[in-house]
Structures are given as C-alpha cells and as structure tokens.
Amino acid sequence: MEDLYLLAEIFDNINEGIYILNRQGDYIYCNNSFVKMVGATREDVLALNAFRLIPEGQVSVSVAVMAFEQKKKLSIVNNVVTPKGYRYRQMATATPIFDSAGEVEYMLVEMVRLDLFKKRYQQALLLEDEHSVEPPDLSPATDERPDGFIAESAAMKALTQTAAQVAQTDSTVLITGETGTGKEVLADFIHRSSRRADRPMVEINCAALPENLLEAELFGYERGAFTGALNAGKPGLVESANGGTLFLDEINSLPLALQGKLLRVLETHKSKRLGAVKEEEIDFRLLAATNQDLKACMIHGTFRADLYYRLNVIPLEIPPLRQRRADIIPLSTFFLDYFCKKYSRTKVFTRPVLEQLEHYDWPGNVRELKNVVERLLVTSSLGSMEIYQIPDQLLGETPPTPAASEVYPADWESFYRYDPERFSLKGYMDFCERQVVADALKRCGSSYKAAALLKTDQSTIVRKRQKYHL
C-alpha cells in the first residue's frame, strides 16, 4: 500500500496530465495535472468513457481511440477550449499496454500543454550555459495584449511604482520618451490602475487627423455647425471621456489654435461643442504623451507655455530600450509567446539569439523589437522548435566599410612604424581581431557560420562586426 501511495504522489506531482484507460475505454486513473487541465473533478473524469466522448460531442478527436484502433503508440496536437473559455494547444500521446495475447489491455495517455512546455524548454536553454546566471522569469503573462507592460530593469520598476502611485489621483500626467518606447502602454497601465478603470479610456492621436477635423473630433459639434455636419450632431472625444480618461498622444502636434481651447477645458472641466451656446461640465482625467521636447517647442513658438505647465503636473519619462537592457529578454519572450499563440506555433529562442537581441541598441525601441520577434517567428523553420539564428540584415543596416586610411599593415612592427605615436598593445590586438573577424565573415557569408568557424557564439561576432564597422 505504501508503494501505491508513493506512486500516486509521484504521478500527482508530474507537470503533464496523465490518465489510464482499461480495454473498455473507462477512465480508471488520472493525476492532478490532468484534472486541472480539463477543469473537472477527479470523480467526473473517472465516470467518463473514451469511446463515448466523440459521439457525445465532448471532443472532436481522441488519440486514445485512435491508438486502440491502430494498436500502436500515437501522438497528436490539438487545440483545447476549457469550460471557462481559456484556449491552449496540447500534444497528447497514447501508449498501448498489451496483454499476453497481444491485445490492448490498458491505454496510457500523456497530455502536454505546449505553452507551458515551451516555458520550461526556454528556461532550460538559458541554464544550459554553465556560466549563465539565473534566467529571467518566463512565467506565462496574464495580460493577453501584444504590447504588455514589462518592467524588469531598475528604471522601469521605479517608473511602474511611480505610475501606480500617480494612478490613484486625478492629476494630469505628461508621458515623454522616444518613438516606440511604449508611451500608450504606460497610459493604459495608469488608466487600468486608477479608480476610473471601469470607465472608458478615450485615445486620440493628435498627429493622425487633419487640423480642420481635429477640433470637431475633440470637442464635437451641434447640428448644422458646418457644411457636412451630421444632422444629429456628434459628441466630441473629450465629452466621450466623461467619467473616464482622455489620452492625447503626440500632443506636440496639436495646432496652436486648439491649444488655447484645450487649456480652458483643462482649467474649467467644461467643454462646448462647435455651434453650441452653452458649455457642459465634463469629468475626465487627462493623460498626454509626446516624443518631442516640449520646452524646445515652446522656444520655437509651436507650443504654448501655459499649456505646457498645465500638462507637466506629473512628468513621467520612459527610457529608451538601450538604457534598460534588462527588459529586452523578458520583452522578447513575451512577444514570442504572443505571436506563438497568434500563429499557432511553438518556438523558443536559443541563448545566442537572446544575447544578440540583448546587445542590439534598438533605435526603434520596443516597437522595433516586437516587429523583429514576429519576423523571426514567421520566417523560422517549421521543422525546428528553436529559433537559433537572426538574419544578418535584420537588426539594422550594415555599417559602412572604413576608409582605406584606417587599414594598417599586418605585422606589429609595421603597425608600430606606421603610427608610433598611436601605437599600443590594445590597438594592435584590436587590429588583429578585426582582421580575423572580417576574414571569417567574408569567407563564411554569415555571422552564424563565422561564429562556428571561430568557435565562439554568434552574438560575439555581431558585436565585433558592429564595433569594427565590418
């Protein structure tokens, strides 16, 4: 009995779902993982019969039934929808256990959720290098958005804490940062963390609409306010944000004529439609974002100083991705998870790829990283679970070849005579390294093959290529 209890404990602590059928197709055993996967009780599972599942419409295909019929081990991949509506892909493997007469007596079935297996596989690849440190947390993201708010670096953790604190107030927030850093994601985070989270966040990109339409979109209009106006009139976005949050992206693009009107709305919390006689009170919280220096805009006369100071109550600056490299790997795996679900793929990054992603400067920031991850996934080999190479041309353009005057003689003595004032051991070693890497790249045609030739990793070759402008 103790042995049976121990086996039951072992099976219940296995990550994969396991169940066993008798020759009649009755479920005679299932472990805890399988119970959780199907969202049922153990008693409910043990009342099932595999041969009745398809006729009763509970499943569209059964690997166990197929294995019973073919009398051999089979594996299939199928999509699962739980009773609560959660979707995932799984691989099911059915293994027949035969009696002495060669007939199937029992059927052992293992169920592996591919998303969870992929997480463990990714962790294992990161720990494969004996010199590696503790890998980042790659647990499944709860946010299904493809632009989830990732904060692993110290700078982003501090920013998140400040944003969460600010979210509890109605203070105006001005979010700044380079293009692609995720300003709209931070705005959404603030809204979802605020007391207005159950009300809408109305977003408008001030650069996306022509000036003659922007005023009508922002403030709305009454019937007959202008030629082409709808007979019933139209509420403005400011009005639609009543009770919620108004997010004005690229606010630096707001025309000067509308900046004064917006300033009045912010100060009075009253808005008037075009063609209307009276103002209406509006309760909203304003978030604004820009990738421009508004102080410089003030100096050039394109942005009102009084509006700037009204917006700049709580300034939050998102640092560029190159200044928060600790976020690159978590963001990369987050986007990979998202696109794997979107395209029904199961892929992981190898360590050299993650290192290469981590060392790239990302001038397009998070938006560029997201696009690169999607491209890596959809162009990777369907026959491999690992994404092990980044095409040379994918991460930015190839730097220009250095001028002929920068190429020195080959041996150290000639190197010294060429420029004795600048000669140093480090300079000569850099020169030798550059020559070796350049020759390997020329001979092999790709950084991946050059790394194999020089017995190093691809990310090192990429860094050297960037360092020496090869």
Draw up the topology in text:
Elements: H1 2-12, E1 17-22, E2 27-30, H2 32-38, H3 42-45, H4 50-53, H5 63-70, E3 74-81, E4 87-98, E5 104-113, H6 114-127, H7 154-167, E6 173-176, H8 183-192, E7 201-205, H9 211-219, E8 220-221, E9 234-235, H10 237-240, E10 245-249, H11 256-268, E11 270-271, E12 280-281, E13 285-290, H12 294-299, H13 305-311, E14 314-317, H14 328-343, E15 348-349, H15 351-359, H16 365-379, E16 386-387, H17 412-418, H18 425-444, H19 447-454, H20 458-467
Parallel strand pairs: 6-13, 6-14, 7-10, 10-13, 15-16
Antiparallel strand pairs: 1-2, 1-5, 3-4, 4-5, 8-9, 11-12
Explained architecture:
It contains 20 helices and 16 strands. By secondary structure, the protein is of the alpha/beta class. The protein has a 5-stranded antiparallel β-sheet. Strands 7-10-13-6-14 form a 5-stranded parallel β-sheet. About 7% of the residues have low confidence.
Keywords:
470 residues, alpha/beta, five-stranded antiparallel β-sheet, five-stranded parallel β-sheet, 20 helices, 42% helix, flat
Question: How would you sum up this structure in a few lines?
Answer:
With 470 residues, the chain is of the alpha/beta class.
Q: Structural class of the secondary structure composition?
A: alpha/beta
Instruction: Summarize the biggest pleated sheet.
Output: 5 strands, antiparallel
Shape: flat
How do the strands of the widest beta sheet line up side by side? 2-1-5-4-3
Termini separation: 69 Å
Oligomer: single chain
Rg, nearest Å: 30 Å
Number of strands: 16
The number of helices is: 20
Q: State the helical fraction.
A: 40-55%
